[in-house]
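Need tokens for this chain, all 92 residues.
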Amino acid sequence: MDKKQMENWVRRNCKFAQQTGLWKKLKDSLTPTNPAYPSLQEVETAQWDQISRWADHLPPPYTAKEMSILKRVIERFKEMGGWDNMVRGKDE
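Here are the structure tokens for all 92 residues:
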């Protein structure tokens, strides 16, 4: 049973879970966390090399927090010149 099927089963069969707040705890426990994602503070202080690695290799976001981190990584990457920075040379 995958995550979506589990959520549908719980919604149909566990009204008690929804009424008591257990649904939110269950849903949070089913949401995968990805240790590969940096914190927003790390994104703000990272150099071009690290930002470019994150922009190229971070897995798809699962949570709203990961989505906001990925958006900021892409913004910083563009601010730093994107891939053109690699072609021109980082020292220029």
